[in-house]
Amino acid sequence: MSDLEVARSATLRPIEEIAAGLGLLPEEVDLRGRHVAKVRPAALDRMAARPAGRSILVTAMTPAPSGEGKTTTAIGLAQALNRIGVRAAVALRQPSLGPVFGTRGGAAGGGRCQVVPLEAMNLHLTGDSHAVSLAQNLAAAFLDNHLARGNALEINPAGIEWPRTIDVNDRALATTTPGGWVACAASETMGILSLARDLPDLRARLGRAVAGTRTDGSPVTMEDLHVAGPMAALLRDALGPNLLQTLEGGPALVHGTSYAHLALGSCSVAADRLGGQLADAVVTESGYGADLGAEKYFDIKCRGSGLVPSAAVLVATVRGVRTHGPENLAKQIENVRLFGVPVIVAVNPFPGNTAADLETVIREALRAGARDALVGHHHARGGEGAVDLARAVWSAAGDGGTGFQLLYPDDLPLAEKVETIARRVYGAAGVDYSPEARGRLAELEQAGFGGLPICVAKTPYSLSHDPALAGRPTGFRLPVRAIRLAAGAGYVTAVAGDVRFMPGLPERPGGEAIDIDAAGEIVGLA
C-alpha cells in the first residue's frame, strides 16, 4: 500500500485521549476536528517548572536528494520507546508546502511510521504558516507605509532587510520588491515562532526584529514601527504546538520550521520543551545532515532555550554510503560528538540491500566512534521493528547530557564563529568573504549584535558549499557572499555558495498528482 493508503487504514484515537494521556487539561487543548488539536500557550506556562525528560535528536549523514528517512526513524523510535515502557512523544517540524507541491512531497514519515491524519499534517495543518506569512507581510506593509508617509524614522530605502514571504515555491517573487521574498519556512518570523519559549518571549523577539537601517546606519526595529504588537496578535495562537498522533496512537507534537539549509531546520522550542515536560523522552528531528540541522539545533536552539540533548541518532543508508563514502558517515558522526553527545547510528534498509551491505555500514559506523549501530525495520514493522534501536538509544540517553558543550562561546567575534563552523564541522581550509559580507559583519559587531550565534545557509548535499563535492572534501574554502541579520530570532545568517531563499518549482511539480476524487477525498499526496 502507499503511505496514504496505510495512513487511511489506521484506526485513530480521539485526540482528546492523546491529550489526556499526556497530562494536558481539557481547557489547554483547542480541538481542530476529531484528530487534530492545538495546545494553548497556557499549557507551556503550567509545565514550565516540571523537570524535563530526556531529549533525543535524530539527524543523518549527508543525504541523497530523496533523503535518508529521518522523519520515519524519529517516529519509529518514539513508537518503539513506548513499546519498551518509556513514555515518549515525537516532536517534528511542520511540513512546508513548497516541498509538498515541489519535489520532496510531504513530511509525515512513511510506511508503518507516520503521523496522522496525513492530509492534515502535510496540508497547512492548523494554519501556523499562514499566520507567520501574515505577520511577516504585515511588517513589510507597515515599513512601506512609513516610507510613504514622510519617513519620520529616516529609514534608508537601500538598507531595507525585511522580505515578504509565502509558503509555496515561486521563483518569480525572488527580487520583485525591496527586501525581496523568502520561503515562509526560511523567514525570520518563522524563526521567532520556532525559538520563542512563551508569549512574553515571542512578543519581545518580535519587538527586536530589525526591518532595516536609518540613514545614520542605526537599526530600525519592529517596535520602532509600532508593528510588533499586531504581529504578536496574529501569532498568539500559532505559538501553541499542534497535537496529532502516530500510527500506533502515540503523541506527536508538530510545530515550527523546516529548511535546515537556509534556516533553523528543527521543530520549535515550545514543542520540544512541552514534549520533554509531558513525557519521559521527546524524540526530535533536525533537517538534512548533522553539519546543518544538528549543528544549528545544538548551537542555536539549545543555546538559548536550556534544552540539553541526551543522545543523538544518526540515520545512514547503504545508498548514502555509496554516494558519499564511509568517510562522510565518519565525519557526520564526528560532528555530533564535537558537542559531547553520544551517537547511535540507525541504518535504514531499502529494497535490494544485502545483509553484507548493511553490515558494512554498521562496521564503518562503529569504527568512526558511534556508541552502537543497528539496522532498523521500523518502516516495514512500525515500533516493533525498532525495539532494539530503542533499547540502545535509551541506554545511551541515560549516560548522555552531562557532557554537552557548545561549539563556540557567545563572545567570539562573528567572523571567527563562521570560521569555527567551517573548519571544525565542514572541514574547510578557511572562509572567503565578499567585500559586502565582510563589511556587514563589521557593522553588526559595531551595532552590538556580535554575541549572536551563526546560522549558515548552504547546500545540504555536501559538507561543503558545492553540491558536486561528495564524500568528505578537504582543502576547500567556504565562500560567504552575504550576511543577514535575524535579531528577533536571535542569529546571524551567513550565506555560502549558491542557495535560494525563494526556490522555484521543478519542471514536473509533484503537486500535479494531487487532486480530490468523487467522494471528496484527497488523492496523490505523497
Quick structural overview:
With 526 residues, the protein is of the alpha/beta class. Helices cover 37% and strands 18% of the residues.
**Helix content estimate:** 25-40%
CATH architecture of the largest domain: 3-Layer(aba) Sandwich
CATH topology of the largest domain: Rossmann fold
- Based on DSSP secondary structure assignment, what is the total number of beta strands? 22
Number of helices: 19
Question: Structural class per helix/strand content?
Answer: alpha/beta
Work out the count of structural domains: 3
Strand content: 15-25%
What does this structure look like?
With 526 residues, the protein is an alpha/beta fold. It folds into three domains: 3-127 and 238-399, Rossmann fold (3-Layer(aba) Sandwich), CATH 3.40.50.300; 129-230, 2-Layer Sandwich (Domain 2, N(10)-formyltetrahydrofolate synthetase), CATH 3.30.1510; 414-496, Formyltetrahydrofolate synthetase, domain 3, CATH 3.10.410. It is built from 19 helices and 22 strands. Strands 1, 2, 3, 4, 5, 6, 11, 12, 13, 14, 15 and 16 form a twelve-stranded mixed sheet that branches. Strands 17-19-20-18 form a four-stranded mixed sheet. Strand 15 (343-347), helix 15 and strand 16 form a beta-alpha-beta unit. Helix 4 crosses helix 17 (387-399) and helix 9 (199-208) packs antiparallel against helix 10 (228-235).
